[in-house]
Amino acid sequence: MSFGDISLIKHKKLRGKISIRPNVRIKSIGDLATFYTPGVAAVSTKIAQKTCRVWDYTMRANTVAVISDGSAVLGLGNIGPEAAQPVMAGKALLFKEFADIDAFPICLDTQKPSEIIAICKAIAPSFGGINLEDISAPRCFEIERKLQNLGIPVMHDDQHGTAVVVLAGLINATKVIGKKLEDCTVVVNGLGAAGTATALMISDYTSDKVKMHLIDVNGLVCSRSNLNSHKKHVCSVVNASKMRGKLKEAIAKADIFVGLSAPNILTTEMVKSMNTDAIVFAMANPTPEIDPEDAKKGGARIVATGRSDYPNQANNVLAFPGIFRGALDARATKITKKMKLAAAEALASSVENPSVNKILPSPLEKTVVEKIAQAVKAAAIREGVIRPVCK
User: Whole-model pTM?
Assistant: First the structure.
């Protein structure tokens, strides 16, 4: 029986995988009067006098809304809000299981950026943070950007969770092969949400020193003139090659391949054309850009994928629980570039002795969340992007 078959049986039997459970029990009239009416009126009055007290008297300080429009769900594409619901509930499950954050799946029956932005602003008073999920590019860039002044952390996980994990893996992979990341040539194949954020984060970490070949479905990007605003931006801020051609031309003599694109587009011959001790991150799911064994045959020293059945799984669950835990604990008003870089460095440092088959911890190593959370919290406090204490 496949995991899909088992999942269908379990979900139907349980009617999903998350539920709301109370912190208190109603066992007497006194309990009812305390936690509902009339007692709760005192709490509402206290908050009405000073709204910042909501963080002390309600669950808001530990809640995250997981919001999707169903337009880019896993590798399934634009399957809509109803079909996206099991995935968003899964995200909520991971928030609770790994970071003890109460998260709620909210799937929207609109794919208009202006409406999604308006909805997020309208529901923000109920949540401590917003995790945008499975919203297709380029709309996701605009939506996230326009929600940065809500006064709570808002992060599109497909972008930044992926970027944090990939950067952490590359930090350790380059240690293993004895190279500095800033001295490498990196091919980023796929300039959607994840690819764009990953290119920017690698560039930020290396202070724009690393040379990049950025590729989309039409080939090398930064030599072209007909680019949308998001691709123009990434080409303008990273040390991007202006060469022309396709993946075959770009990967020759490269040190690192990062694929956030499509299955089976990287060949063994292409890997052979890379520099010695090549690093291949084939992240397409469920079928990677190249089978890890084929990448090894081509001479790749280190191979990572998004799958759990191969070594070096690069999965977002390594990043987002700790990032939001740290942001909530810091009372952060946003998630900044420095907070994300701190998360990547903390994730990398959680592997004490990186090796060819161990550049990232297992997603089940829950101590990683605490390490990332502490680093993110400290970065938020250093930057001063935190709410003042309510007096």
Answer: 0.94
